[in-house]
Amino acid sequence: MPAELNGPRLDPEVATAKRLVVFLHGYGADGNDLIELGRQWRKLLPDAAFVSPHAPERCAGAPTGRQWFPLNVLAPDDARGEDQRWSGVVAARPALDAFLDAELARRGLDDSRLALVGFSQGSMMALHVGLRRRRAPAAIVAYSGLLVGPDKLDEAKALSAKGESPPILLVHGDQDPLIPLEAMFAAMDDLARAGIPSQWHLSLGVGHGIDAGGLTHGGLFLAQSFRATGR
């Protein structure tokens, strides 16, 4: 049985939620770390509900935080780290899929009304799971992350009702000391080779974090992606 996830939620400004935005936090944080983004996006997405689940495991590197999977080797270009990350996203996927299914059912929504927004390790999960759902989500936004398993994108077959891959926005700071900027461009190239288009936004002077420009760009991207579904 996959772990049962839970975390803080924000209801929409209108009476009934027509969209669902799910935040996936980074290594050593928890769901409280990103739920505030929902408050800042409410004006752009007044009919969206927001939820930010806590990752299923306690984090050895930050005892008060959580992790989607262990990280012992952090270098993106280290082969041992890639194997570890792949095993990690595969193991964590069932719990997240079950959570997404339950949240959508609770709101009476389907994947065309879903957006995944990840930061760092949460971005790895957002890309991995979002590209492998039964039906493509309306959007995926990945902040300061990287694409795990680029050689396994043949299994990333989530498509919309129109037969299209989910819209993807990659956002990265050019001064990120943990996951280098090159990881964003590598992800964009790997996705393109698999026939999955993506957009990107570079946050100048920003390290491993989200600045005001990246936040605004992400919110506008979600609003545009939701409108494009026509529902």
Your description of this structure?
The longest helix is centred in the middle third of the chain and has 29 residues. It contains five helices and nine strands, in the order ββαβββαβαββαβα. The protein has a single domain, classed as Alpha/Beta hydrolase fold, catalytic domain (Rossmann fold), CATH 3.40.50.
Mean of all residue-level pLDDT scores = 93
CATH architecture level-2 label: 3-Layer(aba) Sandwich
What proportion strand?
A: 15-25%
Fold-level CATH name: Rossmann fold
Salient structural properties:
231 residues, Rossmann fold, 9 strands
Task: Compile the SSE list and pairings.
Blueprint: E1 9-10, E2 19-24, H1 35-41, E3 48-51, E4 57-59, E5 62-67, H2 79-107, E6 114-119, H3 121-130, E7 139-143, E8 168-173, H4 182-193, E9 199-203, H5 212-228
Parallel strand pairs: 2-3, 2-6, 6-7, 7-8, 8-9
Antiparallel strand pairs: 1-3, 4-5
Short précis:
With about 230 residues, the chain is α/β, with parallel strands linked by helices. It has one domain (about 10-225): 3-Layer(aba) Sandwich (Rossmann fold), CATH 3.40.50.1820.
